[in-house]
Amino acid sequence: xxxxxxxxxxxxxxxxxxxxxxxxxxxxxxxxxxxxxxxxxxxxxxxxxxxxxxxxxxxxxxxxxxxxxxxxxxxxxxxxxxxxxxxxxxxxxxxxxxxxxxxxxxxxxxxxxxxxxxxxxxxxxxxxxxxxxxxxxxxxxxxxxxxxxxxxxxxxxxxxxxxxxxxxxxxxxxxxxxxxxxxxxxxxxxx
Length: 191
Description:
This protein is mainly alpha-helical. It has helices at residues 3-24, 33-36, 40-66, 72-86, 88-97, 102-130, 135-140, 144-162, 164-179, 184-190. The protein has 10 helices and no strands. The chain is globular.
Protein backbone atom coordinates (compact mmCIF):
# COMPACT_ATOMS: atom_id res chain seq x y z
CA UNK A 1 0.00 0.00 0.00
CA UNK A 2 1.20 3.50 -0.77
CA UNK A 3 1.54 6.08 1.95
CA UNK A 4 -0.77 8.53 0.16
CA UNK A 5 -3.88 6.70 1.29
CA UNK A 6 -2.61 6.52 4.86
CA UNK A 7 -1.81 10.23 4.88
CA UNK A 8 -5.18 11.20 3.37
CA UNK A 9 -7.09 9.11 5.90
CA UNK A 10 -5.08 10.55 8.80
CA UNK A 11 -5.57 14.11 7.54
CA UNK A 12 -9.32 13.50 7.36
CA UNK A 13 -9.47 12.16 10.91
CA UNK A 14 -7.47 15.10 12.25
CA UNK A 15 -9.76 17.54 10.42
CA UNK A 16 -12.78 15.85 12.00
CA UNK A 17 -11.17 16.07 15.45
CA UNK A 18 -10.72 19.83 15.06
CA UNK A 19 -14.28 20.18 13.76
CA UNK A 20 -15.71 18.28 16.72
CA UNK A 21 -13.71 20.40 19.16
CA UNK A 22 -14.98 23.68 17.74
CA UNK A 23 -18.57 22.41 17.55
CA UNK A 24 -18.37 21.46 21.24
CA UNK A 25 -17.81 25.12 22.16
CA UNK A 26 -20.94 26.97 23.12
CA UNK A 27 -21.51 30.63 22.30
CA UNK A 28 -22.20 32.96 25.23
CA UNK A 29 -25.75 33.99 26.02
CA UNK A 30 -24.96 37.70 26.13
CA UNK A 31 -23.46 40.08 23.60
CA UNK A 32 -20.85 41.68 25.85
CA UNK A 33 -17.25 40.93 26.72
CA UNK A 34 -18.41 40.04 30.24
CA UNK A 35 -20.46 37.23 28.74
CA UNK A 36 -17.22 35.70 27.37
CA UNK A 37 -15.45 35.52 30.75
CA UNK A 38 -17.17 32.33 31.94
CA UNK A 39 -16.11 30.68 28.66
CA UNK A 40 -12.41 31.48 29.13
CA UNK A 41 -11.50 28.01 30.52
CA UNK A 42 -13.24 26.30 27.58
CA UNK A 43 -11.63 28.65 25.06
CA UNK A 44 -8.15 28.17 26.54
CA UNK A 45 -8.62 24.38 26.55
CA UNK A 46 -9.69 24.52 22.91
CA UNK A 47 -6.69 26.65 21.92
CA UNK A 48 -4.27 24.24 23.63
CA UNK A 49 -5.90 21.22 21.99
CA UNK A 50 -5.99 22.91 18.58
CA UNK A 51 -2.25 23.56 18.91
CA UNK A 52 -1.68 19.92 19.83
CA UNK A 53 -3.64 18.65 16.83
CA UNK A 54 -1.69 21.05 14.63
CA UNK A 55 1.60 19.78 16.04
CA UNK A 56 0.62 16.16 15.43
CA UNK A 57 -0.62 16.97 11.92
CA UNK A 58 2.62 18.75 11.04
CA UNK A 59 4.92 16.09 12.49
CA UNK A 60 2.80 13.24 11.11
CA UNK A 61 3.22 14.76 7.65
CA UNK A 62 7.00 14.82 8.05
CA UNK A 63 6.97 11.31 9.50
CA UNK A 64 5.18 9.96 6.45
CA UNK A 65 7.53 11.82 4.11
CA UNK A 66 10.35 9.72 5.60
CA UNK A 67 8.32 6.49 5.37
CA UNK A 68 9.29 4.29 2.43
CA UNK A 69 7.10 1.26 3.11
CA UNK A 70 3.64 0.95 4.64
CA UNK A 71 3.04 -2.39 6.33
CA UNK A 72 0.12 -3.76 8.30
CA UNK A 73 1.90 -2.89 11.56
CA UNK A 74 2.39 0.70 10.35
CA UNK A 75 -1.34 0.91 9.57
CA UNK A 76 -2.30 -0.40 13.01
CA UNK A 77 0.19 1.86 14.77
CA UNK A 78 -1.26 4.83 12.87
CA UNK A 79 -4.80 3.84 13.88
CA UNK A 80 -3.60 3.53 17.47
CA UNK A 81 -2.33 7.12 17.32
CA UNK A 82 -5.56 8.36 15.73
CA UNK A 83 -7.58 6.60 18.44
CA UNK A 84 -5.87 8.53 21.23
CA UNK A 85 -6.03 11.80 19.32
CA UNK A 86 -9.75 11.22 18.73
CA UNK A 87 -10.24 11.40 22.50
CA UNK A 88 -8.93 14.98 22.58
CA UNK A 89 -12.36 16.58 21.95
CA UNK A 90 -13.84 14.71 24.93
CA UNK A 91 -10.89 15.50 27.21
CA UNK A 92 -10.82 19.12 26.01
CA UNK A 93 -14.48 19.67 26.74
CA UNK A 94 -14.33 17.97 30.13
CA UNK A 95 -11.29 19.98 31.17
CA UNK A 96 -12.72 23.22 29.74
CA UNK A 97 -16.03 22.78 31.53
CA UNK A 98 -14.28 21.96 34.82
CA UNK A 99 -11.05 23.89 34.29
CA UNK A 100 -9.47 23.61 37.71
CA UNK A 101 -10.84 20.20 38.63
CA UNK A 102 -8.08 17.62 39.03
CA UNK A 103 -9.74 14.57 37.43
CA UNK A 104 -10.55 16.17 34.05
CA UNK A 105 -7.06 17.69 33.95
CA UNK A 106 -5.51 14.29 34.74
CA UNK A 107 -7.64 12.70 32.00
CA UNK A 108 -6.44 15.34 29.54
CA UNK A 109 -2.84 14.59 30.50
CA UNK A 110 -3.42 10.85 30.09
CA UNK A 111 -4.75 11.41 26.56
CA UNK A 112 -1.66 13.51 25.76
CA UNK A 113 0.64 10.86 27.25
CA UNK A 114 -1.07 8.02 25.38
CA UNK A 115 -0.88 10.03 22.13
CA UNK A 116 2.85 10.59 22.64
CA UNK A 117 3.43 6.89 23.28
CA UNK A 118 1.34 5.99 20.21
CA UNK A 119 3.38 8.42 18.09
CA UNK A 120 6.59 6.82 19.35
CA UNK A 121 5.21 3.38 18.47
CA UNK A 122 4.33 4.59 14.97
CA UNK A 123 7.89 5.84 14.55
CA UNK A 124 9.23 2.42 15.63
CA UNK A 125 6.94 0.59 13.18
CA UNK A 126 8.02 2.85 10.30
CA UNK A 127 11.68 2.31 11.16
CA UNK A 128 11.13 -1.46 11.31
CA UNK A 129 9.27 -1.45 7.98
CA UNK A 130 12.00 0.55 6.24
CA UNK A 131 14.83 -1.56 7.64
CA UNK A 132 18.46 -0.57 7.99
CA UNK A 133 18.16 2.16 5.34
CA UNK A 134 15.46 3.96 7.35
CA UNK A 135 15.59 7.70 6.76
CA UNK A 136 13.56 8.17 9.93
CA UNK A 137 16.07 6.28 12.09
CA UNK A 138 18.84 8.63 10.96
CA UNK A 139 16.67 11.72 11.28
CA UNK A 140 15.51 11.08 14.84
CA UNK A 141 18.95 10.86 16.35
CA UNK A 142 18.73 11.30 20.12
CA UNK A 143 15.14 12.60 19.92
CA UNK A 144 15.38 14.64 23.12
CA UNK A 145 11.94 16.23 22.66
CA UNK A 146 10.36 12.82 22.05
CA UNK A 147 11.92 11.48 25.26
CA UNK A 148 11.27 14.57 27.38
CA UNK A 149 7.58 15.00 26.42
CA UNK A 150 6.21 11.84 28.13
CA UNK A 151 8.19 12.71 31.27
CA UNK A 152 6.64 16.19 31.31
CA UNK A 153 3.18 14.70 30.77
CA UNK A 154 3.73 12.37 33.73
CA UNK A 155 4.95 15.32 35.81
CA UNK A 156 1.90 17.30 34.70
CA UNK A 157 -0.44 14.48 35.66
CA UNK A 158 1.17 14.23 39.08
CA UNK A 159 1.26 18.01 39.57
CA UNK A 160 -2.41 18.25 38.66
CA UNK A 161 -3.29 16.26 41.74
CA UNK A 162 -1.74 19.04 43.85
CA UNK A 163 -2.67 22.04 41.66
CA UNK A 164 -4.43 21.69 38.30
CA UNK A 165 -2.92 24.97 37.06
CA UNK A 166 0.59 23.59 37.46
CA UNK A 167 -0.30 20.44 35.54
CA UNK A 168 -1.92 22.44 32.76
CA UNK A 169 1.14 24.69 32.60
CA UNK A 170 3.30 21.60 32.04
CA UNK A 171 0.96 20.44 29.25
CA UNK A 172 1.30 23.88 27.65
CA UNK A 173 5.10 23.73 28.05
CA UNK A 174 5.24 20.52 26.00
CA UNK A 175 3.16 22.19 23.29
CA UNK A 176 5.61 25.11 23.27
CA UNK A 177 8.51 22.69 22.86
CA UNK A 178 6.89 21.27 19.73
CA UNK A 179 5.40 24.50 18.37
CA UNK A 180 8.46 25.08 16.23
CA UNK A 181 8.24 22.30 13.64
CA UNK A 182 10.77 19.52 13.97
CA UNK A 183 13.12 19.96 11.02
CA UNK A 184 15.23 16.82 11.53
CA UNK A 185 13.27 14.78 9.01
CA UNK A 186 13.29 17.59 6.42
CA UNK A 187 17.07 17.90 6.76
CA UNK A 188 17.55 14.15 6.40
CA UNK A 189 15.35 14.03 3.29
CA UNK A 190 17.34 16.84 1.69
CA UNK A 191 20.54 14.82 1.98
